[in-house]
Amino acid sequence: MKNLLLVTCSILALGAVAPAFGADLAAQPVYKAPPPPPPQVAAAIYDWSGLYIGINGGWGFSDATGGTVGGQIGYRQQMGQAVFGIEGQGNWADFSGSNVSTTFPLNTNRSTTDAFGLITGLIGYTSNNVLLYAKGGAAVMSNAYQVTSTLTGAQVASIDNTRLGAAVGAGVEVGFAPNWSVGIEYNHLFMPDANVSFATAAGGPPRGPDNGGQPAVVATDRIRQDFDLLTLRLNYKFSPPVLKY
């Protein structure tokens, strides 16, 4: 009986303590581990550094106007958001035009350009895959000039030559794929005027008392050759964009 009484008292005591112990456990704060950080994703930062080649086509306009198509090759180096480079460009052209000479109103000057080339340096500013730039350097052109009489239609002089000048320009280029970019560019070519000499049909005083006719005299006309150039460009760069975190 003593043992039964002791067991009964122990059970009652445990029953009284258990709710209080459970309440203490429920009152304890629950701490959860923070969620793991999301995986780091690489953002594509377009890098303009590298060797590139491309094609271009467009329109030239001045005294001589027409279409042109050609190619370019160059190298660019990006430093931060600044881009520096050098480029060579060669184009076939079909520029032609004519105007009445201001020096000899009875003559018409005609000029044609069948090719030109540019060697330019470049400096630009980039925002990821968009590049704004300015350029400048040397220009060379293959030209032909003719002087024609407006009265008879006869050609009184002609000359073919290659002329050296300067070029300045600006453009914008957008990278639309890892190695490809497309852009539009404007250039102004400063070319020296062409001096075309020819013999006039008549003019000047008689050479002497024994020569009552009008001798032929040599005249020189100047043909302006500056022109503006607007082209669309497509480039392929051999270096892919750099992925940065």
UniProtKB/TrEMBL annotation:
<comment type="similarity">
    <text>Belongs to the Omp25/RopB family.</text>
</comment>
<keyword id="KW-0732">Signal</keyword>
<feature type="domain" description="Outer membrane protein beta-barrel">
    <location>
        <begin position="42"/>
        <end position="191"/>
    </location>
</feature>
<dbReference type="InterPro" id="IPR011250">
    <property type="entry name" value="OMP/PagP_B-barrel"/>
</dbReference>
<dbReference type="InterPro" id="IPR027385">
    <property type="entry name" value="Beta-barrel_OMP"/>
</dbReference>
<dbReference type="GO" id="GO:0009279">
    <property type="term" value="C:cell outer membrane"/>
</dbReference>
<dbReference type="InterPro" id="IPR051692">
    <property type="entry name" value="OMP-like"/>
</dbReference>
<dbReference type="InterPro" id="IPR006315">
    <property type="entry name" value="OM_autotransptr_brl_dom"/>
</dbReference>
<protein>
    <submittedName>
        <fullName>Porin family protein</fullName>
    </submittedName>
</protein>
<dbReference type="Pfam" id="PF13505">
    <property type="entry name" value="OMP_b-brl"/>
</dbReference>
<feature type="signal peptide">
    <location>
        <begin position="1"/>
        <end position="22"/>
    </location>
</feature>
<keyword id="KW-0998">Cell outer membrane</keyword>
<keyword id="KW-0472">Membrane</keyword>
